[in-house]
Amino acid sequence: MEAYAEDLNHVTSGEVLDEDIPPPSVSLPKLAALLRVFSTVVRSIGERFSPVRGPPITEVYVTDVLNRVLACVTAAKQVQFSEAVLTAGNECVGVLLASVEPIGQLMEAVLAYGLDQLDCCLACGSDYSLAVLSLLTLIVDQVNTRLPVSFVERLLAPHSQLLNLRFHPEKEVCVPHSSLAV
To answer: Taxonomically, which superkingdom (predicted)?
Structure first.
């Protein structure tokens, strides 16, 4: 996953491309596939993928993987918009976030990531919008009373994409999510 993100960073930086470095049209679908596979594996493992159970799955490990996923998806988005990568990334962040309590820098990174993903909702299809809404619901549930006022203000501001999703053409997107009902 990180190798594809690194390849994408080479494209962004304008470095002379090596013949071995695939173009974004190759890297992005592979990155999306890896993110989907990782999410599927973590979901399949279920409760066993928990820092509470102890090594080898520790809080440090889950936090590290979550930070890496955030970085990879963000890097991919900077190179080329890919709804498939963003949707798979949001699902992956969601399954990882369910295993760790976001505090400090991780919480800030997750909140910024969630708001950044929300900004893309109207340009994407219903699958992406549903993935973002699920992610934001999970973030609100996980962070709970520690949500910064600035996050809530951006989420509920009159120009927020969340409010604009009320008018989405797909009915399933318009159905209020438990923690995000506005």
So the answer is: Eukaryota
In whole angstroms, give the CA distance from residue 138 to residue 159: 22
Query: Is the model's pLDDT at 65 over the cut of 80?
Result: yes
Residue with tokens 């190798």: 3
pTM: 0.81
Tokens of 28: 């992005």
Read off the tokens for 96. Answer: 């990882």
Question: Over the stretch 84-111, which tens digit does the pLDDT of each residue have?
Answer: 999 999 999 999 988 888 788 888 999 9
- Please confirm whether the linkage preceding 51 is cis (ω < 30° from 0): no
Angle at 24 between CA 29 and CA 8, to 5 degrees: 110
**Residue 32 in contact with residue 82, Cβ under 8 Å?**
yes
- Range 112-124 average pLDDT: 84
How far is the C-alpha of 68 from the C-alpha of 125, rounded, in Å?
A: 26
Q: Residue 86 carries which side chain, given as an amino acid letter? A: L
- Separation CA 115–CA 120 (nearest Å): 9
- Residue 11: predicted pLDDT: 62
Q: Domains of the chain: which residue ranges?
A: 2-174
Token pair recorded at residue 13: 């930086």
